Structures are given as C-alpha cells and as structure tokens.
Amino acid sequence: MIIVPVKEGESIERALKRFKRKFDKTGVIRELRSRQQFTKKSVERRHEVLKAAYIQQKDSAEDEA
C-alpha cells in the first residue's frame, strides 16, 4: 500500500502528484498490461536484443556526430 503523508499547508494537487509518481514507480499498470497477453520467452528475448541493438546503434551514431 502506498502512503503519502500530506504536510501541513501542502496542497492536495501536490500530494496527488507525489502519489502518482510513487504509483508509476511501482510498475503496477505496466505489469497488468503485460499480463493481458501472453508472449513467449523467445519473443521477449528477441525484443530485448533488438532494443539493445537499436540503442547501441543510436549511441554510436551520436558519438560520430
């Protein structure tokens, strides 16, 4: 359970913003979305490799410029 203490004189909007930030860091929504559809381990691995290759290529192109 996420607890966000509201300090005296602090606006509700500010406390709500802190709550949303903490909630995003827990990754609950990402987990729910990923569980809606089953993906095989091999497909997940392939996506990870492609993403790593893309990032590496992007970084090397950035170094050359």
Draw up the topology in text.
Layout: H1 12-26, H2 28-35, H3 41-64
Question: Structural class, from helix and strand content?
Answer: mainly alpha
| Share of helix, binned | over 70%
Please indicate the count of domains: 1
List segments where confidence is low: pLDDT < 50 over at least 5 consecutive residues.
none
Biggest sheet: strands, sense, closure?
Answer: none
Q: Which band does the percent of strand residues land in? A: under 5%
Quaternary form: single chain
User: Mean of the pLDDT scores?
Assistant: 93
- The Rg value, from CA coordinates, equals 19 Å
Terminal CA distance reads: 47 Å
Element order, helices and strands? HHH
Q: Number of DSSP helices?
A: 3
The counted number of beta strands is 0
Describe the global form: flat
Keywords:
65 residues; mainly alpha; 72% helix; 0% strand
Written overview of the protein:
The chain is mostly helical and 65 residues long. The protein has one domain. 72% of the residues lie in helices and 0% in strands. The protein contains three helices and no strands. The chain has helices spanning 12-26, 28-35, 41-64. The radius of gyration is 19 Å and the shape is flat. The mean pLDDT is 93.
